[in-house]
Each structure stands twice: as structure tokens, then as C-alpha cells.
Specification:
The complex is a heterodimer of chains A (about 500) and B (about 375). By secondary structure, chain A is α+β, with helices and mostly antiparallel strands. Chain A is built from 18 helices and 18 strands. Helix content of chain B is about 30%, strand content about 25%. The chains are: A alpha+beta (about 500), B alpha+beta (about 375).
Chain lengths: ~500, ~375
Amino acid sequence: MNAITEPVLSYAATASREQVLLALRAVLPPHCILSREEETRPYECDGLSLYRSVPMAVVLPESEAQVQAVLKTCKKLRVPVVARGAGTGLSGGAMPHAQGVLLGLAKFNRIKHVDREAAIAVVEPGVRNLAVSEAVAPFGLYYAPDPSSQIACTIGGNVAENSGGVHCLKYGLTVHNVLKVRVITIDGEVIELGSLAPDAPGLDLLSVFVGSEGMLGVVTEVTLRLTPKPALARVIMASFDDVEKASDAVGKVIGAGIIPAGLEMMDKQATQMVEPFVRAGYDTEAEAILLCESDGTIEEVAEEIERMEKVFQQAGAVRLQVSQSENERLLFWAGRKNAFPAAGRVSPDYYCMDGTIPRRRLGHVLKAIQQMEIKYSMRCANVFHAGDGNLHPLILFDSNLADEVRRAEDFGAEILELCVEVGGTITGEHGVGIEKINQMCVQFTRDELDSFMAVKRGFDPECLLNPEKVIPTLVRCAEYGKMHVHGGALPFSDLPRF
Amino acid sequence: MSTEILADLSEQVRSAAADNRPILIRGGNTKAFYGNPFVPNGVASVMLDMRCLKGIVNYQPSELVVTALAGTPLQEVIDTLDASGQMLAFEPPGFGSGATVGGCVSAGLSGPGRLVAGPLKDFVLGAHLLDAQGRILKFGGEVMKNVAGYDVSRLLAGAMGSFGALTQASLKVAPKPFETSTLEWELDEAESLERCHSWRAYPLSVSATAWESQGSTGRLRVRLAGAAAALRSARQKLGGVALDQEQAQSYWGALREQQLPFFNTEMLWRVAVAPGTAPLGLGPTLIEWGGGQRWIAASLDAAVVREAAVRAGGHATQFRARSSSAQPQAGVFHPVAPGLAAITQRLKNEFDPQGLFNPGRLIPKA
């Protein structure tokens, strides 16, 4: 083991908490700094509450100049900085660093400019995703990426995570809908990535920045591409008596040359969980249902719905229902979007996973998850973006019961590793954060992880922005590898690991 | 077989690295004209010929992705997709029959379909890189959504081999539209720009646009693509004269490959501009992408074009020049802002500290 050496970064080696606060007070007004425990505690975690850490201080700057000053200060004192939007992330990406500063961007909440003709909006990072679509609705436009948390999540967080949503099969992810970002580097310098023109000269740094989980810079402004609102949207609800048949139907729709506006699957566990809560009219007898949306002009939708129905019939659907009104369409989706609150009703805790796999492996992986339910004696509901092959298994557990947290985590880890095994990835849209950092060792070789580190250093040479996330260290991978050798029986299971 | 070829390519890189010899990465050699010239460091350079590495590795139409080795002819990929009713929606130019997948991704160029479908980089799902240490690094994959680690495969798209040689790429594909139709109008430049700009915010099934001057006025051609019903209603709203299908197809192909008479010029500038930009008035012009991409066929001074491009919120590239002496001092690409240049240099140093790969082609030598 003596071969394992890596640079150990000793953060805040030169600065105490008092020194950091003193330096921050020199650049920010008092009301922008939170330092008392009762003020900083609410920021200890994001949407993944399994991982918590209270920061030294929380800063809530109100201007770009203040963000620059905060970053310059942190750089000078070598203090880690973690940026945060609404804190709705599901992988611990915004979990603070105990020796660091949490940089909240909630006050950057203005929509600065909307150009109707050019179909673009310039917004600050703290603007909520849904607020963009609401603001541009009078122009017949909307912002296409629609993560389920769109009521609360912010555009800055969407950029950090490259968020998706139910409509990204047809309209793309965040990376496809962001034209330009204004970024403050760890040096406090302003840079602009991307362009309003079709492209920018040099390397495509914007694409590598989107989805970088706050590790390369802090966003202060985002230019979004808006999409014309379709005249009509209708959704088909197709029931299947077998999960594999439903999975095959997904590939058949795509194979028929159709790109639906949304193509989602819910298994029986999920529909039975949601139906009493939402009364969406789901077929709770079916082993799986598919929700398949068509949008466009009235004629276009009529033509496409007919084509989709034919595919589903041939794929063995036992029941087909097409939304007859906008209200009914929204009701069909309401059940899908409320799967998480519904899970909260039927189970004290749930753990949402996020692997992506090739579509043709959907049936295989869903069956394997059913086997794992038996192995871990835990229920798992599946409600997910089938068209993208992006799974969201919801593991239901009770953290008050001995051992259940660990078993839920192991269950999740096994699902993610299966995703990698069948040619997929450990995260489709939630990010790695701190949660999936161990599985990074499974998906990538050490050389590949080192090259991620190289990218990080290209932007942030001293690794002060959201450190110790996403890219596992050599030691961590070695330890995780050892844990696996012992097959579930963890050595030193009393040691804190995360 | 590809394992042995890969091992051989790795060995070539390692031995070049040992001798500090610069490496010229070459596919079909169809885009050698594009970008800055390769800058040798005085030592004999090594040519890494990627054409030995060819073949489609994986293609299942229902997965909407094709994975091919870097040396695979681009045309072979296009033909294979076509047989299953699919396509590369960004319509990459080949600029010659020898064009390869690796060259296509490394050059990062998109054709007429980019207007609505998006640029090449939006379609890159994964890539394998032969790096300066002779290692094969795998980024991204074959699935549509993937946020594990940084999106290095998109960074490699258009990087012109600055970080190493692509050995394999996975590209998202799209179903071919059920129908296409091309409309034509006689319009001058300003009017054509206004019209294209006004369509942006409406769902009109426009998939490509091209305006070219013709005598005292000009001609705008617009390609519609989609379901039959959508095209019917778009045609009703837009008007214009419908072009014969075959004539239309050959026109968009010739535009993509720059085989139209317009492109027969001493010097060709590409100016990318923000939406709503008025005519630039720089010389003979051909406009694509609803106004966003402007080709200028004139021997212009770099400073003049660049200033106009910056005023229009964009940038200018000297795309082709018959005489290499006409190359701008600062290179054919628009210089990037100092902050970005610093990040670019750091990335280059991290991945290729000896500066072996394609020196000078995209990233100026430090």
C-alpha cells in the first residue's frame, strides 16, 4: 500500500475561523454574513439529507463585485468555497465544507432581460427554473428543461448539475439550452463562456462547465435559449401486464422514428403509491404504465398520436388512454411529478437513485432490481425517464430501524454498479456530489479520474471550489475496492466514512 | 484487431514523447486547410495516421447512438444510419470523400441542419482519447444522459487534436424527418435577415436557411422538415415557391460541402454573429443558420473583419485562404479573452505538458 501517495490539501491551514470571518466582514456588509450556529445550521445539507456538514460561515452576496471579493478572500486565505442555489440537489453537491465558506446565490434572483424575437432570456443564477417559463409565457415561449423540482430549483443549480427533466428527450438537457454563462473564477476574475452567436472561438469550455457541480467557477449570469410553446400537447397512458413488454415498447417507439416530447415509465409499485395520493386515474392493475407525450401543431399531434398508439398496440399494451383535455393531460403528469411526495406518504424515508442505461437493457435491469428487493428485503418503486433510459429507483426504508440506512445505501450502490455493468452510467441528471463518489471508482479508471482532476486544476489550480466532491481520491477508491472484496461485510464498520 | 492497432498507436505516441517529437494527427486529410498550420519544433515530426482504426463498433437504431472508431469514413456512418432511416442531424461537412469520424469530431464543424438541431458538440455522447502518455482514456458513453465526471468528450469536440488523438466517438443520431420541403424567395439581404429572425420564436418546422446575393437582390432558401401535417401548415404561413426535391437536396449538399460557386474564392471568412445582426457589409456574402453564420468571400484584413464580428457579438475565422502568406498574424481563429486563454493553456499543459499533439493548430504555442 505504500504506493498510494497523493497531495494532501490542508485547507485553512493558515486561517482560523475568526480570521476568515474578519476578512469576509471587510468585503461584505454584516447582513450578508451568517456565522452563528443557528444561522449556519440550516445550510448543513442539500436535498440529500444523509450527508451533513456545517460550514464556518455562510455568505449571501448581493452583487457580482461582492462575489468576486468573497472568492478573492477565500483564495488568499486558502479556504474552500461551496456554491449553493436552492439546495434541492439530490447528491450532496451543495453540502458545505466544514472548514469552508458556503456561498449562497439566493439573492441573485432577477430575470434581467428577455428578447422575444431572439428567444433568449438573461437571468441571474438564483432565479427558479419555473419562474423563467412563467415570465416568458406571455410571449408564447418557455424554458424547456423541466426537472421535477422546477418549482424550487434554481438556474444556477441546473447549470451546475446539467439538469434534465421529463421533456429532455426531445428538447435536450441544460447543456443544450444554455448559450452563455458569466463566471467568477476562484481568482475573482470575470470570464464569459459561450456566446449569443452560434459558437465561441477556441475550446468549448461552456460544455465542460455545465454539469461541473460548482467545482470550476461561480455563475453570476446565465443566457438561456427559449423554446416556442407548442400549440397542443397530448399524452397517451399505455398499460402493460409485464415490465419487460413496457420496456420493449420504449425502444419500439424510438425505433419507429418518433421522438416523443416525454416518455416516462411507472411500475406497479409506483402507480399504487401515487394513485391514492393524486387520483390521476392510473391503471393500478398494470405491471407498468408508460406516459408518452406528443406536442406540436394540432395536425401534427393528431398524426403522431395515431402513430404512437399503433406502436403500443403492436407492443402488447393492454389498455390505452389518450388525454382528452389539457386538464386531463396535466392530471396524468401530476401523478408522475408527485411520485416523491407520494413516496414520503407511504414510507418514512426514501432514497432516490439516478442511473442511466441503454434503453434495450431496461427490462433486464428492472427485473434485477426486483430480485434486489428480495435480497435487501426493501421495497423499490420505479418511476423514471424511460425514453432516455434514465432510471430513478426509489428505495423505501425507515431510518429508525437498525441497519436500514446502510442497507438502503448498499441497495442503491448495487443498482448503480449494475448500470455501469450494462453499459450505462451512475448518474443521469442528479450529479455525483458526495453521494456517488465511491461509484466513480467503478465507472472510471484511475487515469480517467486523474484527467478529471486535470480539468479541475485547469480552472481552479488550488482546488478550492467545492473540493472533495465528484472525483474520488486514490485512497478512497482503494478503500472502496477493499470493501467490495469483503462482499458486504465492511471492515471497521464503526469508522465514519463520508 | 483494433486492440493491436491501438497498442501500436500508443507505442508511436510513447516513442514520439520519448524523443520529444511533435505529433501530427491525421485522418482523411480533408480538413488540413482549416485551422492554423502545424508548428514543428525543429525536430522531425511524427504522423499518427488514424485511418487504420476503422469500423462501426455499435449501432442499434432504437438506442439513437452510433459508436465508431476514429478512422471510420464519415460517409460509411452516414450511409449506415440512412439505411435505418436515421441521420447525423448536425449534417457535418466532409470536405472530401476521405473524411473520417475522428476528423469530423475534432474539427467540430456543423452543416446547414445546425440551425435547429444544434451543433456537433451537442451530439457527442462519448469519446476515447489516446493521450500524451499513450493511454486510452474513456469519457462519456453511449447513453443520452450522463453527468458522471466532467463532460470531457464535449471538450474534445472541436479541440483539433490539442489533447491527443480521438480513437473512438459515440454520436447521438436522429430519425430522418418524415418529409422535407424547400421554399425559395427573391429577397435582399436585410429583408431576408429580418424574416429569418422573426421565425425564431415560432414553431415553423424550419430546419435550414441559406441566403445568397443574386444580381442586385438575393435569394433565400428555407428547408422545412417534419411530419407531413406540420409542413403543410408551415408552407401555408410562409409562402414562397417550392423547389423540386432533387434540386433542393443537391443544393443543401453542395452548400454543406462548400461546392457552390460562391465558395470559389481567394479567401473565405466565417463570421458567427448574435441573433438580430444586420448586414455586415464586408463583401460578397452567403448567410446560414437564420443569420448566425455568415460567409464572406473576400480578401479582407483580419482586423477589419474581427472588429465587425465583435460589434455583432461574435467572432471571425479565416476559414480558407489560397495563399498561406495571407494568414493573419494572430492566427486564423479569433483570439480568445485573456481569462479564457489562461484556462486553455493550463488545460493543454495538464493533458499534454510536452506540447506534442498538433502544436499550434488551435491553441497558440505558449
